[in-house]
Every structure is written in structure tokens, then in C-alpha cells.
User: Fold these one by one.
Assistant:
Number 1:
Amino acid sequence: MRMLYRSLLLLLICLGPVHALDATAEQIRTYSEAILDGSNRAIGGRQIAATTVLPAFYAARDFAPAWSDPQRFSELLDVLKSAETHGLTPDDYYYTTLAGWPDDPVPARLAARDVLATEALIRYGYHLHFGKIDAASLDPDWNLTRRLQNVEPVKVLEQAVAAPDLEDFLKTRLEPDVFFYTQLRAALARYRGVAAAGGWPAMPEGPTLSPGDSDPRIPALRRRLAVTDPLLAAKSTETHLYDSDLEAAVKRFQARHGLDADGIVGERTVAAMNVPVEVRIDQIRANLERTRWVFRDLESRFLIVNIAGFEAYLVEDGKATWRSRVQVGIPYRKTPVFKKKMTYLVLGPTWTVPPTILREDIVPKIKQDPGYLARKDMVLLDRDGKLVDVSDLDMNAVSADNFSYTVRQEPGPKNTLGRIKFMFPNKHFVYLHDTPSQSLFNRAERTTSSGCIRVEKPLSLAAELLHDQAGWSEPEIEARIEHASNETVTLTDPIMVFLMYWTSVPGEDGEVNFFNDVYSRDQAVLDGLQAPFRFSAFR
């Protein structure tokens, strides 16, 4: 189908309009033919990526130039330069080349500039909408597409070129429309301002500091915090006393950097304070890119789990209306990144042990201690679903490779899934659920599960998801769970769940929060942002 479309388009271009073209338009047609048939896809040595959209755009306008108006061309340059405010690189869109283009009336040069400017706008719009990096190249589990839904790219390009305000058009039509993105952009501008002013002063290492202490490093601590904490900025930096104002500022810093907010300035807190501002800027850039991968063509209501931030959000009309701390997979059992629609809940769930956990954890424990299953309220089932007495097994013959049984944990206080689970069936056997391990929510870094997402406030989430069904308030759910045993509750309004990975996000107060890169994924994103543009990504 694509080849047929390209053949028809080439025929249209070659036939051309019935009236005569001026010299610049004629040259644009020549360029369009060469780009489309593949004989020359470079303008002044610079590759053209939009090898179908760009020729179709010019054919639809009889090859008339799009950027002959100096004011309009200047507006395009301003838009391309603003790519840096999104964490992108303006020269991926030929900004320096176009800004320095000689004032040359020769038709071939005018046509080349026009075609290159249109290519730049297509690239920029594509990256603004989808991100520069193809996330599937970094993660085999990625299942979000990079296709425009029910939109003709040439029409969008025509609308952009004709829009009264090009920047506003791109913001409205292509930029992610969600608080995550706008607040991360604002944070990027603030931290770049800090970098331009020289960054922040280093916090000297030394003994742990606690509230009430007096120490010669306290002024340095105040100066460091004042750079990014406007509530502390007006306070004196001369005192050596660790007072209550400083304690509150330290706790705010710790809470925003994925640390235990205890007010004690130890090695981890000092290390976080001494991360260079340039590293934080890159962290924001990486997460702006991740946001572009996701926030487009969305329903008005969806659920997000931020794996790196150990938090879940229910988003409605672009705003977070519910939040909860979560626990996610330990680094060698990473919670995967993907999206899937949640369709039902289970009250008083059983837990069928997934294959990996069965093979790596449960079978070795059964061999070591046959009473393990009974103590954990687990049962053994054969392939027909019939109960098997573990004492009937030949433990000398049992191994992880030949274990043909299913292990199921029954409902109750010991159940790994707690009182409720939230199901969005997927190949990873990953879902959200309650947990008896409540104390682990008090940790700042919560990589504690075997891959599933443990939710601190599962009943309030259930009430939110069942808001359109009578009889499902949080107290009513609590009461029903008391007597439930693997009871399925279907959602009349299924909701899309996004399991994502962001190491910096806006907090509830609008300030940016930074988290440790627990799965070591940031660098690959930054490498992709810095890499040369790969023009084969779209046509």
C-alpha cells in the first residue's frame, strides 16, 4: 500500500500542475521528485527524513514555497530555537544552518532553504509529539506506537504552515497536554538558570549533622539549600546553628530527592546535594523525552505507575486526582514498562505463583523444607487442578526444570496480594495489588517486590475506579472484603494503566522531584537525545 501511494505521488509530481511554475517552484518540484524517487535525498548535504510527507505537501500546494515571507521564516526560526526548552537540540532541526542561510535570490538556493525549513518543521513536530527516540529500541517490552491516530500528516503540516501563530499551533496540537510536561519544562528553565549563575556551592563532607547541632559547615549547608529552596533563600547563612528552619529545608530537600526525610544530613544527603546541576538538567531532559513517548491521544482518565518514583497517580483531565506510594520490582526482577487496560478487580484474591518465582524461589524452598507451603497458606495442584499432598513428592527427583505443578496461595492475611488485586491481563503476570508488607512503604526506596506493584492505598483506589457503580464506597469495599474469596468485580468503565519510568517528576507543590535511577535507564535515553538524528525513523 505504501509503495502504491508513493508511486501515485511520484506520478502526480512528475505530471505537475497545468500552469507554468516560477523558477523557485520549479526547483522545489525538482527537489521533491529526487527526494521521493530516492535519487537524491539531501539538500546541501543534509538528509531529508520525510521522504513521503514533504513531497506530498509541496505537490498539494503546486510546489509554491512555504517560507518566502521573511516574518514567517523568522517565526519558524524562533520555534526551532525553542526546541532547547523541551530538552531537545535545535540543530537536530537545522537551526544554525537556516539561521545563517545567505540572503541569496537565486531560485535554487531559495528552494533549498524552503525545503530544508519544511523538513525541519516536520522533524520538530514529530519529535514534539512522539519523542526523538524510538522507545521500543531501548525496551523490548514497550508497546506504545509512534503513529498518528486518524490524522493525515500532510494536513497537519498544511495547518501548521497556515496557522496564525506557529508556536501556539504546535503547543495545542503536538505538545503533550499534561501537567507533568509543562511543570518539567518549567523546572528545566529554572535549573538552567541555576547553571548559568554558576550552579550551587558544594556541601563539605564531614560528620553527620542533626537538628540542634552547631557546626562550621552549617553556613555552607544553608547556602546550598537556598539555591533551590525559595523558602530558605531569605534566611541568614551566617549562623552555625542547625535550627528548625534549616531542618524543615533539609526535610524538603530529602523528600524531593528520594531520601528518608528525617532531617539528618548524612552521607546520602550530602551526596545528593553535591550532584552537579548539569546532571539534574540531563535528568529532566531524559524525563521530558519519556513524557513525549506517552502523553498523546489519551483518554481523559488513566492510571500511571512511576516505577522509579515509587508512586501511582490517577489522572483525570490532565490533573492528578489520586496518589499513592507503591513498591516495585527489585533490580533483578524489574517491573516492566508497558500499557494495558484494567478491566476487573479481585477481592480476597488467591495468588497463583508466576513461573519465574516458582522456578527460582518456591521450588528450592519446597526441596529444603516440605512444610513451607502449609505455613504460607499455599497448596499444590496438578495439571488437572487437583490438590496434591507435598509429602507425596519425591524430593530427590524434584527440580526447577521438571516441576510440573502449580502453586497457589489461598486468600487470607498471609496472601502476598493482600486483600485486593487490580487486573490488566498481560504476558508479564504483572498487576497492582494490596500487600501484607505495609512497613516497607516507609522506605524512601521501595524496590521490594518480585515485579508486581504493591499499592499502599488499594481500597481508596478501588473506590475511585468503581465510582460509577453503587455500593462501592471505601467502607463498603472494606466490609465486603471481610467475606470475599477470589470474587471478581468487573469495571463498567475500564481504565488504561501505564507502567512508566521517570526519575524526575513534578511534586504536588509543583517543585521537581528527583529519584535514583534504580534500573540504570537514564543514560540510554540521554545517549539517544545526544545521538545524531536518524532519518530512517519516519517517512
Number 2:
Amino acid sequence: MSNKPDKKQIKSNIRQAQQIDSRLKAALDGEREELAKLRKAADQFLSARIQASLEAMDVDMLTQGKQKIRVSYLRSAGVQNMWQLSKMSRQQIEDLDGIGAQGATAIYDLTKQIVKNAKEKLSVRIGIDSPTKADDALVAALYCVIVHGQQRQQLQGLYERHHKPLTKEIATAQTATSGFSWFFASAKERDSALTAATALQDRLDSEFGDLSLLEAYEAVPKADPTECYAHFREHAADYYAALEKYCTQLPVAQDTKAGLPEELVAQIEATQIDLTGLKATLRSYQDFGVRYAVHQKRTLLGDEMGLGKTIQAIATMIAMKAAGKHHFMVVCPASVLINWCREIQKFSDMEVTKIHGADEEALLHWRENGDIAVTTFESISRFELPEKFMFDYLVVDEAHYVKNPAAQRTVAMQKLLAKTEGVLYMSGTPLVNRVDEMCFLVSCLQPQLSARLEQLKLVSTAEQFRSELSGVYLRRVREDVLTELPDLIEKEQWCELGSAEQSIYREAVESGNLMAIRQVSWQVPDLKDSSKAMRLLEICENAKEQGRKVIVFSFFRNTLEKVCTLLGDRCSQIISGDISPAVRQQIVDEFNAAEAGVVLVSQVQAGGTGLNIQAASVVVFCEPQLTPAIENQAIARAYRMGQTRDVLVYRLLADETIDERMLEILSAKQKEFDAFAEDSVIGDLQMQSDTSWLTKLVQEEQSRLGQQ
């Protein structure tokens, strides 16, 4: 192989290869500079937020304490707000007319305290409806870090596969680019040079020479704000996770320990986990939750809805696999089976085996190949595992579904529990009824602890009971760990019934039919006569103008059918209990991808749990629901981690109807539940099972209308 080389072409190839190699290296080395820019943007964001907060505080705040401070002297000097005052030294304050040394010291010290309080209460929420320049800069910096972080993984692989052989090829091919070197080269050296030149050409014709990924990487910093904010809306949870990870100066991270004993917290934080296979960045409270599950082995994760229990479960299984485990099972309601499969595929590389019903073939495949089987509560009683077969970890979503010891699915679950050492029960509302049920759930996980709880439940204080639970039960609530969540604005929409509505309502009350009574206003033949329908139409029109999407919930299928008639083609297919999980997820996917103004309609039982619909920021209830928990679960479909807009919740209520009394009772029940679930832990409310109040409510309504 001693043919005369094409020196010009080889030189060009070497120059092109060196440029690509250099660009790859620059991309891989760019993270440090990007993080520095991010932290600088975070500093500016923090300063702007503090300034805006203090500018909104009038100097009259100084008079709210016991100290007698005359702010009139400050105003006379042009100092109107706390921001202006915070920029002044003690001496500058003392130099103002009418303020002496003692007064200046009091003003200065109080101002420092107000500034400190403002910083502690500061929200790190990124503005999306009316963003500032500081918001723009922070989102742009985060966009670079997040998108480049994903691209860099691919570029890293490309660089590692090509850099070393490329360097050798260039060094060897150089001989063919110089007449002097070529003239004095041996035949063997010439052959080597030509071989290297050919290899270099082949490399440029391969993935190495495909510049699309590099060009996409280099285009990221040039993205306009619209593109950055669109990406932020889609991946808000990742943005705040990156802020928490890289920008410790911002008050993003919160207390994640949920009141656990210090000794237990220290053990959990020292637990080593390998999350290399996780395609997401966990928040600090989620990371703690994973370590808790790994360390404690059999636990109940009771995080409030919307805090990412699913990603914590997936991360736990990834950590277990990294530690040498290989067989995992997820049991969930049928309505979220598809969602679980998607989430596992999205956030991990583990194989997912869906086992629906008595699918022996799928079950055998999982037993032979490992990774994650995803199945339903109904299915676990229909398949059998060999007596000697054991698996490594069991995740049970909505674990309160197996709180009744006599139920068939609970019996089936007991068999699964005996086949694994590691268990993660999950439920956002595990304490909706009574402590007996909580004790049963704990007995499934840690029987020895359950026996102790049985002894304590009637005689202990709430604090003692919580302390005993700490080894098995971890619960965090939104306001404690998600400081960036937008506002939740709840509005009661009172509608005055027209004559047609009143007539039909009286007939329903007279019949004593609770279902008909609860559908007040929706049973008129012509929806133009329905005050609730007309208000819903206005809400949906306003949402469209504001660029929002809407979820409409009702208990009643026929009410939702009328909603669809009212709103026409802007409505989705109704999500109800009789449609399959796959179709349900498809409806949500189409809703998420649609333009603003679309409306998702759902029966509250079918769409109120398990689905992530944070694309919506308006939630409407067509009538009061039977328990606060039902409404809270439905609201949590939209008001959850990743939501970027304030969430508006509208309750359509008819004046002087059963809606009024239901709202009063539900409000009282919510207060009881809050005290039970978060403060006292010990109680016996039976809110869901006790419906005698409804019968009494109908009788009261009949009496009010003079029908008894």
C-alpha cells in the first residue's frame, strides 16, 4: 500500500477531526462554567426577590412592635419602604433630622430583623405569568445546565469511543501530509500512514462525523426565552431539583426528616445508595425517602399526594438493583397500571413486565428475566408463584386498598409479603379512617412494632404514637418540602337557581332521592336554564383567555355528559370507571399535548387518583363531594410537584340548597381530618364509612322546604 497519498484531503480530514474532538472536549469541560453562571443568576434572582419583598413593605412596619418609632422623620427624608432603609447604615439613619443615636440603633436593629425574616420566608418560585429579568436569566441558566446535562451523557460516550484511536490515527496519518516525511518514510510507515488516513476518513463518515448532536448542544445557549420557558413548564420538577442541588444559597431545600428521632436520621443519612441508573435528579426529601426505604427495609411512605412517591419507589428499586438485587414487583390499582409502566421506562433502564390478570406467560418471563413486574390488586389473587420462589422487593401503591384483613386482595397480598424481605407500602392518605387500620398496615410490615402500637394506641399521647411509628412510617406534606409551589386559590361559586331549576330541585327533595338532590341545577332539560352550567361556561372561557387548561370533576356520569354537550369539541372523552387504564392514560396524554382552553372531564372516583395532570391549572367541581379526602385527591392531580402556575379551584354551589349544608359539614370534617392525620394521629373518625349524616341532611332539606 504505497500509492501516492492525497495530501490535501488527508490534511483536511485531520483538521476536521481535530476540530470535532476539540468541540467534544469543550462540551464535556463546560459544566463548571455553566454552574458558575447558574449560581450567579441564582444570586441575582435572590437579590431581586428580596428587594421586591422589602420594597413592598412600608416603613410603617417599624411601628408594629412595642418600640415607639416615629417613621415621620424617615418619610420626611424620602425613606418610604424597608428596602431603602435596609441599604442605610446606623450612622446614616442617625444623621437624619429628628432621629438620635438611640432611635437610630432601634431602627437599625429592627430593620435587620425584618430583612432576616423576609429572607427566611422568601419563595423561590420562578415567575411564569409575569416573569422578571431575574426570572429570565435563572430559567436560561437552568435550561443550559439541564439540557446540556442530558446531551453531555451522549457526548461523553462519543468522546470516549473515539478520542484515543483518533489521536493515534492523526499522529500516524501525519506522515502522508508532508512530502519530506513521506520521502524518507519506509514502506511499512507509508502503509501505516495510508491505513490511518483511511481509518480517519471512515471515522468521519461514522457517528463521529455526524455533527447534529454537537450542533444541538452548541445551540442551547442561544435559545430564546420562549423556548426556555416552554421547557421549564414541561420539566419544572427537574428545574427545582437542579436549583436545590446546585444553588444552596436559595431556600429551596427544606426539613425532610418529618420529626424522626435524631439517631434514626443519622443512620438513614449514612446509608449508601447508588442511583447511577436513575434518569432524574431527586429532591433532598426524596433522596432521604429512598435511603429510609432501603435502610428500614419494610416501610410505609405516606408523603402527601403530589410529592413524587412513584419516583422514590423507582429510585429505591434502582438502588436495590445496584446492590445486587434483581426481582421487583409493583402492585397498583388497575387505573394507574399503564402510568407505572411508563414512569419506570422513563426514569430507568430496567425491563418492565406487565402482568394483567392470570397471565402465566408474563409471570414466567419476569421470573426468568427479573427487573420489574407491574401488576394490579385484582391480578395478584389470580396468579401463583412457586412455593420456593422469592423475590427482592415489593412496592404497593395506594396501600390503603389492602387495609381490610378479610378482603380477598388483602389475603393475596399477605402471600406476596411472605415472599420478599423488602416492602414499600405507599399511600398519600393512609389514615383516612381509624388507627386500627393503620395498625393493621404496620402489622403487615413490622409485626413486632404493631404489637407495641396496639398497647399504646389507647393510652399514649400523639407524640408518643408518632415516635413509635417513626421506624416504619415516613410522611411529609407539601408546605414543608415544596417552597416553590404556586398558590392554591379556592373559590366558592354560588349560583342562584332559576324557576326551572327550583321546580326540579323541589321534586327531587320530595322524592328523598339523594343522588337526584345532589345534581341540583344539572337536571334541567335546557342547559341555558342551568345556573351552574352557565357559570362553568364562563370559567372555561376565562381559562382559555388566560392560556389555562381545565379539569372538570363530578361524581355523576350524566352530569359530565351534559358538561360535554355544553362545551362541545373543547372537551375530552369522559374518564370514567368503565374505561381501560390504557385509554385513560391516552386521554390524559392528548390533554397534556393540546392547546390552552381544552377541558378534561372526569368522574371524581376515576380521575381523582393516580394520574398526573399538572398541565391543568383550573379545577372545577360540579357539586360537593362526600369527603374532603376525595376532593383533596382530585385537586392533587394538578396541584403537585412540577406545577408552575397558581391553581384555581372552583366549587359550583347552588344557593339555598343541600350544597350549603354539605359544604358546612365537609369543612368541619376537613378540620377534624387535619387534626387527626397531622397533629393527633390517634382518632376514630370513620369519615368515609359513616354516611348517616346524608340521610339526616335529606330530612333537614325536606323539612326546610315544608315537605315533612
